[in-house]
């Protein structure tokens, strides 16, 4: 398998964790999202993935895009260890936590969105940072309430074994730290993050551990 | 089953199509997202769904949230008719198209985001409309390129039978029309939408056909 990735892309980070947890070796192909206006927009990468986004996974001659679609694919083709529980209602719970990060927080703080705010709308650097913090803190507040009270919560989001919910949550926590957002108000999230980062699959997927880290 | 829904919420629209396609009867419980600052923030609804979002589906005493998690749950518990193809790579393709709408377009044009732009950042009505159009048109341009050239494309996104990709795409087209975005530049998307809206399951899920439509 080949993974088109950018070290700091949290959607790439999710897929790297999944590949590590399932013990699947892969070739790492860096796509620099900032240099020269973004290598993802260059013809070379557009020919591979016309959507111009990372991550993308090449497997068996097929190019797969969208991190959660890639992770579900890995789950179906390499079911062990499972990243989703067995019962439909439990699977729905884990997917909902993953989507709460992937649809409610992450898209608002993407590079292209921050660029539009600053470049097109002329928002100040301070207001841009406040925007970033707003969506992380309101999203984390809602998640914290859920995780603190839900009986499924263990050392990780769903019991003690990693699920796709952790794959989305941990990279988002990494982003929050990068933007100096304190986690004091989200003790359950902070505790889950601390435990996850003791696991090799998560540590090896961290931005700083990637070949293109700066 | 009980569906907490708002007629104009496109995430609710997705789940309504899924329920209709699978022939599952449900009780419609309206949650007005605008009236009185939004009924989804009121204690009565927060007690049901602390995330304060619609849709939410109650089934078998469980409350499920996040439209795509709900749809995957319906697919697992009521597999026929299938809303995903059989092969993992094809399933990944359909999920990727669905996520391209659900993660790249829709979250940026949510009510709460438009409110923040106008209320907190003081963006003009004109710039807010331009923001809305920007994410729809750039997202549709990318999707059009994909759908126009992909051999999977049929009368619908994947062949001629509805999949979760159509469940995400059609409500997004409805939103685009509501904001007077012309579809001329996206002939494949327009054609898929036209065909989908000849199907009863889609028509019955339309905002105008809901009991809380205004």
TrEMBL record, chains A, B:
Its EC number is 5.2.1.2. SUPFAM superfamilies: GST C-terminal domain-like, Thioredoxin-like. Residues 87-214 form the GST C-terminal domain. PROSITE patterns: GST_CTER (PS50405), GST_NTER (PS50404). One of its GO terms (molecular function) is maleylacetoacetate isomerase activity. GO terms for cellular component: cytoplasm. Keywords: Isomerase. One of its GO terms (biological process) is glutathione metabolic process. Gene3D superfamilies: 1.20.1050.10, Glutaredoxin. NCBIfam families: maiA. Belongs to the GST superfamily. Zeta family. This is Maleylacetoacetate isomerase. It comes from Noviherbaspirillum sedimenti.
